């Protein structure tokens, strides 16, 4: 009997120890790949007003408490190549660390709602498990790929000034703003982004842009690409479109005008920037039959600026 009791107690202790290890392992965390010796500036907001944070990086091991309000940025000196931040973080900002951060793994922080990691030297960004992520600002890095297919709550994405050649947004139906300027994208489909209001995709290599049915789209900037055509069918809220420096033929431009939403009865006309004197054949004064657009209460304007 005594033996059985001792065995039961041993098994209970083992079970409790395993549960504790599992609970510790499941604490949300974010891991950075950093340059040892560098000051790494970080800012956070927590799930509660008493959120415990622990940062480990080589000999660096520090703990503190944060609240729901984002903290001012403070630096931590990297003592190894991996810096892990443990805790229920809802907003994380590690921006403008230059070459100090080259990779981020947020996949184990399902509570994360806002991630700002722009102006670094990122070549890898893992947001695979960030099911609550609403804001992602990862512009001005060196990302050759970005997977947001497991971020269904995403509302705002700025991944401009990277090295992206593909961007799958089919699993992000809540996106309201997308900026993917100055990448190497060859095609972009936002037809599943039913709440999209603003799209900036200029200075890519786009030969295909799918917009049909984006009923809430109000502003588009798609200049400096290689688009042979563009269809605005179903984009009934569109007010402004910058389409300069693409490969529209005269016929394709007319079709583009025909697909514009009818703004007759609206106080303000729509504005489409598409006329480019340098791109017109000799003797031609317009890109297409502008009357098709003006009859729908659109102003067809000359290109200016970098759109």
Automatic annotation (TrEMBL):
Keywords: Leucine-rich repeat, Repeat, Signal. The keyword Nucleotide-binding does not apply. GO terms for molecular function: signaling adaptor activity. It comes from the Bacteria. The keyword tRNA-binding does not apply. Residues 1-23 form the signal peptide. InterPro entries: CDIRP, LRR_dom_sf. This is Internalin. It comes from Tannerella sp. oral taxon BU063 isolate Cell 8/11. The lineage of its organism: Bacteria, Pseudomonadati, Bacteroidota, Bacteroidia, Bacteroidales.
């Amino acid at each position: 009997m005594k033996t059985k009791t001792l065995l039961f107690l041993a098994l209970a202790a083992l079970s409790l120890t395993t549960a504790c290890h599992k609970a510790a392992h499941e604490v949300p965390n974010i891991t950075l790949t950093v340059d040892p010796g560098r000051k790494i500036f970080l800012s956070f907001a927590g799930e509660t007003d008493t959120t415990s944070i622990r940062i480990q990086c080589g000999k660096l091991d520090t703990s503190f408490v944060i609240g729901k309000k984002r903290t001012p940025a403070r630096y931590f000196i990297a003592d190894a190549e991996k810096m892990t931040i443990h805790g229920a973080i809802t907003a994380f900002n590690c921006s403008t660390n230059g070459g100090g951060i080259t990779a981020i793994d947020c996949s184990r922080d399902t509570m994360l709602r806002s991630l700002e990691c722009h102006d670094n030297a990122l070549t890898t960004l893992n947001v695979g498990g960030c099911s609550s992520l609403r804001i992602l600002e990862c512009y001005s890095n060196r990302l050759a790929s970005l997977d947001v297919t497991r971020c269904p709550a995403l509302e705002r994405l700025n991944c401009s000034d990277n090295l992206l050649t593909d961007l799958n947004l089919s699993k992000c139906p809540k996106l309201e703003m997308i900026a993917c300027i100055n990448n190497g994208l060859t095609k972009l489909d936002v037809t599943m982004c039913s709440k999209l209001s603003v799209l900036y995709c200029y200075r890519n290599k786009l030969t295909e842009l799918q917009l049909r049915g984006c009923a809430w789209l109000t502003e588009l900037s798609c200049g400096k690409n290689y688009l042979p055509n563009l269809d605005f069918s179903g984009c009934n809220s569109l007010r402004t479109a910058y389409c300069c420096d693409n490969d529209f033929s005269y016929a394709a431009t007319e079709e583009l005008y025909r697909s514009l939403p009818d703004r007759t009865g609206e106080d303000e006309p729509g504005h489409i920037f598409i006329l480019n004197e340098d791109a017109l054949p000799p003797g031609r004064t317009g890109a297409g039959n502008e009357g098709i657009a003006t009859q729908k209460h659109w102003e067809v304007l000359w290109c200016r600026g970098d759109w």
